[in-house]
Each structure stands twice: as C-alpha cells, then as structure tokens.
Amino acid sequence: MAAQAPTAPADVYAEVQHFYARQMRYLDSGEAETWARTFTEDGSFAPPSLPEPVRGRAALTAGARGTAAGLADAQEQHRHWVGMLTVTPSDDGSLTAESQVSIVAVPRGGPARLHLVCVCRDVLVREDGELLVRERVVTRDDRP
C-alpha cells in the first residue's frame, strides 16, 4: 500500500473550507472582480473547456464577467458545491487542495438540475496571511 500524503491540520482544513465557501459565493453571485482577487496576481485557471489556462486577475475578471453575462441572458443561476475536499501541505508552504465540485443550474422559473461534476485541483499560497489560488486545474470525467 502506498504511503498516505500528509494532511493539513484541522484549523488549516477549516480555513480552506471557508475560503471555498466565500470564493464560490463570489463566483455564483457574479462578483467577478472579488472572485478574481481570490487568485494571485499571476494566478491561472485551466478549465477543460479552454485550450489554454486563463492567466492573471484581469483575464480572470473578464472571464467571470462573461460567464455571468451569459447566465443572465439565459436566465439561469449556477451554484457551485465543493465536496470531498483533501488538503495536503507542501514543503514550500503551499497547500494542494483537491475537491469534487458539483455545479447545479437553476433556470428562472424551472427546476434545478445537475449541470456538471468536475474535479478541481488548486495550489493555494499565502500572501499577507491570506489564502489565494496560484493555480487551478479543473478536469471532467466525461472529457479526456
């Protein structure tokens, strides 16, 4: 049996959970700039729907704004639910946070439906005592 990776202490684990609760609320409520500020200045976000990662807060803000506008036009609200979270500390002080994320789509006037399930792997770092995403890679089971 392979050795288990070290896990973060309970207080750090709870801090990461709170980080995601805030971050996903910003995204789901269309607060694009606030959401982008949860990334480092040069942070990257690599979703499976794009050929290259989105890099930097300005590009992250623009992408989140575009998504929010598209959802508003479609009269649909998305809600991200982060679960099955593991947090592994690294020797350099960063944390690797891996989770399964369910995205629920709620059309205005219609029933909610499961839109997407994905795996999110983040490298979190501290800047001025605050957790930020340096790198996010999202994968889907239904795509190579």
UniProtKB/TrEMBL annotation:
Entry superkingdom: Bacteria
One Pfam match, given by its short name, reads SnoaL_4
List the InterPro entries hit by this protein, alphabetically: NTF2-like_dom_sf, SnoaL-like
Enumerate the spans annotated as SnoaL-like domain: 12-136
Please give the name of this protein. SnoaL-like domain-containing protein
The organism named in the record is Streptomyces fructofermentans
